[in-house]
Amino acid sequence: MLMRLSQGHLNLLEMCPPKFKQIYLDNVPSFSDPELEEKFHWGSQFHLLMQQRELGLPIESLLREEQELNHSIKALIQAAPDILEQDDPNSWREAEHSRTLVFGNYLLTVVYDLLIANNNQAQIIDWKTYLQPPNNNKLVHNWQTRLYQYVLAETSEYLPEQISMTYWFVKLPQKPKNYTITYSSKQHNKTKKDLTSLLTNLDQWLTTSHFPHRANCETSCHFRQDFLTSPGNTSYTELQSIEDIEEIVI
Q: Exposure of 193 by Cβ count < 10 A (0-12 exposed, 13-18 middle, 19+ buried)?
């Protein structure tokens, strides 16, 4: 049976293999964080309402009860009418569009908040319910961007150059902002190479049950060795949210 992997798995596997094992293979018990739970709930509600709106379902009554969501969605509609009010008969669009790709011993899975496509291009839209990071380079190199674009190119007729991904940052009090990342054949080949390397390592680690720390773990890993013996030092809820709504801060 193929192991299912998402961008959340890949990000954690690349950052800290022992923590990947602890969370996804050893089933470490959950430790709740009230602040993270609240952010998780707000993000889930936002994504659900945007999906319902895309399906043409009424959301006005729900928004009257949630003023912050109401303001955020109205601000987004005003900022991105070309996306949200689009009525192009030559384009196809779907919210919460999912795709899978077999890659070696793994099933790579992606869920696009919104996918808009026509004969010439495909645009992935992702709603982010936190403030935009000051360094957009992190978005470019994050496995969410890389995997989302890679899987679409591999499972469609679109060339990499015809694919783009746009992040919309919708959390008030800032006005909605967007950042678009284009794609290329060079990036596609690099992603394939990096996926092969990362998952070849995973094959080996699964066989030996030994998931080593990275060489630079002490300076770059958020979950250093001390977390392995003190689960209460970190929040499983935070890590699990990577998987549930793709909304961990990059």
A: exposed
